[in-house]
Design a protein that fits this description.
Order of helices and strands of chain A: EEEHEEHEHHHEHEHEEHHHEE
Largest sheet of chain A: 6 strands, mixed
Number of helices of chain A: 10
Low-confidence stretches of chain B: 1-14
Strand order of the largest sheet of chain A: 6-7-8-3-9-10
Helix content of chain A: 25-40%
Strand content of chain B: 15-25%
Radius of gyration of chain A: 21 Å
Oligomer: heterodimer
Mean pLDDT of chain B: 85
Number of strands of chain B: 12
Distance between the termini of chain A: 29 Å
Number of helices of chain B: 12
Low-confidence stretches of chain A: none
Largest interface: A-B, 46 and 49 residues
Number of strands of chain A: 12
Strand content of chain A: 15-25%
Radius of gyration of chain B: 21 Å
Shape of chain A: globular
Helix content of chain B: 25-40%
Structural class of chain A: alpha/beta
Distance between the termini of chain B: 40 Å
Chain lengths: 339, 343
């Protein structure tokens, strides 16, 4: 992204708390899982924003909020200037045309009793104004061709396809309504290595062809680096660092990002003895009861008293370069490359 | 992983490999036909050595491991040929009660999904202690004490308080530690780790791999690491066997394989992975899909996807050509692959 183009999606202070209740007849709330806790970012036309984080950090809840599959506790998701989180009925239906999703598991996200033609064409049943009835079959075949499947296979069922091909069917369904935004939630993590590359190249090609904006959610940092223009790192419901791919990967400034990156195995045995690993102790704390102040402080080697008292905001800091980082002691350092 | 122990340089105490798999053939008889899962696999591991078995789903890497452990479901599985020698004795010819002694004490295994590998209705301490009660005839109290020691050794915090907890009360990383504790309980000489970190987050993966490396250093175990992750392999392996369609298509010391692969499949894999330290352009993608085990391609199983394909690849199965002392490639055109000129 050399020149920032038009913003297609704005997220402002998005919060989602899932209530924890006790009791059977008289349910009372005893707490909340703070799955997403105050996240803001912009997405520009034609760009890819990667979201990385470990399991339980809230990245999939974020995806559901953006699709309005979950209602936020507070905050806004603006698609083309309108808040999708507040929209209802026909307005919501209309807005959803513009924002589609590709799911993680191609085995469970396709209905086994529907043919490929029915699956890819189903969006047209809901949004019947997009393509007139007589043209739908032809349009579905075009979509299959776009994602690299044989258009003659339109009457086949999902079980007749391999994992990589099923993911292509899911992508074709996502493209059917010609959205501006596609949310990809772990789109390649269920696939074999040699098939992953095929699907990632397809997503790349489609983005250029249709000028799509992607939110690319994954736990695999190498995959995210490959496809993303900008990357956001999440930890326990918070965005801890946000920047261009080179800023995050070559000059990470938040200790969590640094630990995450240094833990990724590099497929090159040369210099493996020199590589220094930051090994975090323990597991992430529960999002029902996150630590006070900075949420990462319980596993952080830089933690001081201030970290428990004051929550660090996601902002640009002196030693951290030009991108925002939510750490009191943020300092850019290259942890991936070995000299 | 930094220091190299003098005895880990190659041969173990028995003047060579501890565990040798020799020309193993395994097939599954199903209603749809005979699936040839393992078609002549040969590999070996010595004390203190780490062998990585690399392959995609359906390549036969896990079936080979299950056959070594003797936990293959038969039927539908059937071993149709080959030998598995542990310290020189063929395990496949041993009666079950002797085989059982090898399991756990000689060779043990950890699995990918710790939640389904552990029994949900028994406390974890009881499951670890079972190893001592059954194999060593230890009393309940002694066995429990040893279980706590082991939980300490795999660094489960507050082992004494957690020994009576159930598997669901632990996180994914901690469960994997419990499984490692069970596997190393009887000081095995060979440990097979089948995708030990695939279900885990990357920071936890780093913790577990460090733990495995440390345990291996302490006890000079031979380690067979089964994985599909080229990054993990590059970090820990001494030598690599790459599997495709139930065969080993390339074996090599780790540095040679990454620097200069000798099989088109290995080469394609290395070029198709995104890397965290480099921003690539378009990824090279291996065309097509892995072979259907019920209907294997004729000749070389990789030929439908191979950029080096010639007439002979469709008819002749390439043998594992020896390239140098420790390297082999099952490709008719390994010289061209090494030189790097694809048609």
């Amino acid at each position: 992204m050399a020149t920032p183009s038009e913003v297609v999606l704005e997220v402002r202070d998005l919060v989602k708390h899932f209530p924890l209740t006790q009791g059977i007849l008289y349910k009372r709330q005893i707490g909340a899982i703070k799955a997403v806790d105050g996240i803001s970012f912009d997405l520009h036309r034609g760009e890819t924003l990667g979201i990385v984080g470990e399991s339980g950090c809230g990245k999939s809840t974020l995806a559901k909020l953006l699709m309005a599959l979950e209602r936020p506790t507070s905050g806004k998701v603006l698609v083309g200037g309108k808040d999708i989180a507040a929209a209802r009925g026909s307005e919501l239906k209309h807005m959803r045309r513009n924002i589609q999703m590709v799911m993680q598991d191609p085995y469970t996200s396709l209905n086994p009793r529907m043919t490929v033609g029915d699956i890819v064409g189903e969006p047209y049943e809901i949004h019947s104004e997009v393509v007139p009835k007589g043209d739908r079959r032809k349009r579905v075949q075009e979509l299959l061709e776009v994602v690299g499947l044989n258009p003659d296979h339109i009457n086949r069922y999902p079980h007749q396809f391999s994992g990589g091909q099923r993911q292509r069917i899911g992508i074709a369904r996502g493209l059917a309504l010609q959205p501006e935004i596609i949310i990809c939630d772990e789109p390649v993590s269920a696939l074999d290595v040699s098939i992953q590359a095929q699907v990632m190249n397809l997503l790349d090609g489609l983005q250029k062809e249709f000028n799509l904006a992607y939110i690319f959610i994954a736990h695999d940092l190498s995959v995210v680096r490959h496809i993303s223009d900008r990357v956001g790192v999440m930890y326990l419901g918070k965005m801890v660092e946000l920047g261009k791919d080179t800023e995050i990967y070559d000059r990470p400034s938040h200790p969590y990002t640094q630990a995450l990156l240094s833990a990724v195995p590099v497929p090159d045995p040369d210099g493996r003895e020199q590589r220094e690993r930051i090994i975090l102790q323990g597991d992430p704390p529960s999002p029902a009861n996150p630590p006070s102040g900075c949420r990462f402080r319980t596993r952080c080697w830089k933690a001081q008293d201030i970290c428990a008292e004051q929550e660090p905001l996601l902002e640009i800091r002196d030693k951290a370069g030009d991108h925002p980082s939510a750490c009191h002691f943020a300092e850019a350092a290259d942890v991936v490359h070995v000299n | 992983m930094i220091e190299v122990l003098p005895e880990s340089a190659g041969s173990g105490t028995h003047g060579g490999a501890l565990l040798e798999v020799d020309d193993l053939h395994v097939e599954f008889r199903t209603r749809a036909g005979v699936a040839k899962a393992v078609n002549g696999v040969t590999y070996s591991v010595s004390a203190g050595e780490t062998l990585a078995v690399l392959g995609e789903s359906g390549s036969g890497k896990s079936v080979t491991a299950q056959t070594i452990m003797g936990i293959l479901d038969m039927p539908p599985g059937k071993i149709t040929g080959g030998e598995i020698r542990f310290r020189g004795t063929d395990l496949l010819k041993l009666p079950e009660d002797e085989r059982r002694k090898v399991r756990g004490e000689g060779i043990s295994m950890i699995f990918q999904d710790a939640l389904s590998a552990l029994n949900p209705v028994f406390p974890v301490g009881w499951q670890i202690a079972e190893m001592f009660r059954i194999h060593r005839g230890a009393s309940r109290a002694d066995a429990k004490k040893k279980a706590i020691e082991l939980m300490d050794r795999v660094r489960i915090p507050a082992a004494k308080e957690r020994v009576s907890d159930y598997p669901h009360q632990f996180s994914g990383g901690m469960r994997q530690r419990i499984m490692i504790a069970m596997a190393i309980a009887l000081d095995p000489e060979v440990l097979i780790a089948d995708e030990p970190t695939t279900a885990l987050d990357v920071t936890v993966q780093a913790q577990i791999m460090e733990l495995l490396a440390e345990l291996q250093r302490d006890s000079n175990m031979g380690l067979i690491l089964i994985t599909h992750d080229l990054g993990v392999v590059a970090d820990v392996a001494d030598k690599i066997a790459v599997m495709y369609g139930g065969r080993i298509v390339e074996n090599a010391p780790v540095h040679d394989l990454y620097r200069n692969p000798a099989h088109p499949y290995t080469k394609g894999l290395l070029e198709s992975i995104p890397r965290v330290d480099l921003k690539g352009q378009e990824l090279y993608a291996i065309k097509g899909m892995p072979p259907n085990l019920l209907d294997m391609p004729s000749g070389c199983a990789f030929h439908p996807r191979c950029p080096y394909r010639q007439e002979t690849c469709t008819t002749d199965v390439p043998p594992l050509h020896t390239i140098s002392g420790t390297r082999g490639s099952a490709c008719h055109f390994w010289r061209e692959v090494l030189d790097g000129d694809a048609q």
